[in-house]
Design a protein that fits this description.
The chain is mostly helical. It has 2 domains: 4-50, no CATH class; 54-103. The chain is built from 4 helices and 2 strands, in the order H-E-E-H-H-H.
Length: 110
């Protein structure tokens, strides 16, 4: 089944009289079952994304490190409170930690 977003995008570009080149990584979920009329779809070669976007690795590493730090601080707080399962988190707490980790990323890291 064709990707609806691609059909909508292609129609929008056609109405605006734009020709486009759409670059997509080679993730299997990005399969395209539609041939655009106002552009061309080009897939990256395998493992090319990580070489083309090296900054992403640093940002992701910094986010993960901060999240792990917050998780350890949470476990220490649970230990101090006498809780049995130090690593137990609900989804809301985990999402808040991820958000705090992202917010702590410095613009120089990005």
């Amino acid at each position: 089944m064709p990707n609806r977003w691609l059909i909508k995008f292609d129609l929008k570009m056609k109405l605006a009289r734009h020709k486009v080149l759409l670059l997509i990584d080679n993730f299997a979920g990005h399969a395209v079952g539609y041939v655009p009329t106002n552009g061309h779809v080009e897939f990256f070669e395998p493992n090319l994304t990580s070489r083309m976007q090296p900054c992403n690795a640093g940002i992701i590493d910094a986010s993960k490190a901060t999240y792990q730090k917050l998780l350890c601080l949470h476990a220490l707080a649970c230990n101090a409170a006498g809780k049995e399962n130090l690593w137990l988190l609900d989804i809301k707490d985990a999402m808040e930690m991820v958000s705090r980790a992202w917010d702590s990323i410095l613009s120089t890291t990005i």
